[in-house]
């Protein structure tokens, strides 16, 4: 792992910064899955959280950064009493609320096409997904409530 | 450990593709390349045996989606079998279980194709 992929452990959260390269997706999804299990989720739910994280980080690498590999993606996994919050920050092109169009699965089945599926998976597998911008950085925050 | 390895074998007129590992944005070109090679060889009936597939992201689903019209136009199809629970959840959540025929086992899938022939 290059020095830029640094892991920092705090009392109740993990922070991980990775280069904007898809080769690190497995590292991130593995961490998300284990964190979900640690938060008390069953294996099936933990797998869904890890897939949602894969989609979110892929969106950042491929769309926000346009596939450029020399940027960073910062992830913060926060454990609360009732949920696991996953915050992802980047300095690329951020998504705004009005740009988010989730395909209707019923229409999608009738008229299949590429694109939009990642956001749909994120919204289906997580309890809350929101996008925001602050001080030149964009954030994608996903929350999974612990059942 | 590699993120993805793919085995391809023939079962009569069916090409059985067995991905092992993870299909995501990092590995999707490898997966897409394997499917495209089959289509270029005129192998239009493809069975994805997913018993060793740990997960597939939307990038991988897009690769399947990108070829489905071509294979069906050539009287072929892409079928799925042996989906692990979380992989099935992804296909089902997106409605792909209505788009593709899903079987419990490779034997069931091949038997269904034999009946159809």
Overview of this structure, please?
The complex is a heterodimer of chains A (147) and B (117). Chain A is an alpha+beta fold and 147 residues long. Chain A has one domain (6-145): Histidine kinase-like ATPase, C-terminal domain (Heat Shock Protein 90, 2-Layer Sandwich), CATH 3.30.565.10. Chain A is built from four helices and six strands. Chain A has helices at residues 25-38, 43-64, 105-110, 117-125; strands spanning 6-9, 13-19, 72-79, 83-90, 128-134, 137-145. Chain A has a six-stranded antiparallel beta sheet. In chain A, a hairpin with a 3-residue loop joins β3 (72-79) and β4. Chain A starts with 5 loop residues before the first strand and ends with a strand. Chain B has 117 residues and is an alpha/beta fold. Chain B has one domain (4-109): STAS domain (Transcription Regulator spoIIAA). Chain B has helices at residues 28-40, 58-73, 85-93, 96-99, 106-116; strands spanning 4-11, 14-23, 45-49, 53-56, 77-81, 102-103. In chain B, strands 1, 2, 3, 4, 5 and 6 form a six-stranded mixed beta sheet that branches. Chain B starts with a strand and ends with a helix. In chain B, 42% of the residues are buried. Classes of the chains: A alpha+beta (147), B alpha/beta (117). Chain A binds chain B through residues 22-23, 25-26, 29, 44, 47-48, 50-51, 54-55, 58, 61-62, 105-106, 108-109, 112-115, 117-118, 120-121, 124-125, and chain B through 3, 22, 24-26, 55, 57-59, 61-62, 65-66, 68, 85-86, 89-90, 93-96, 98-99.
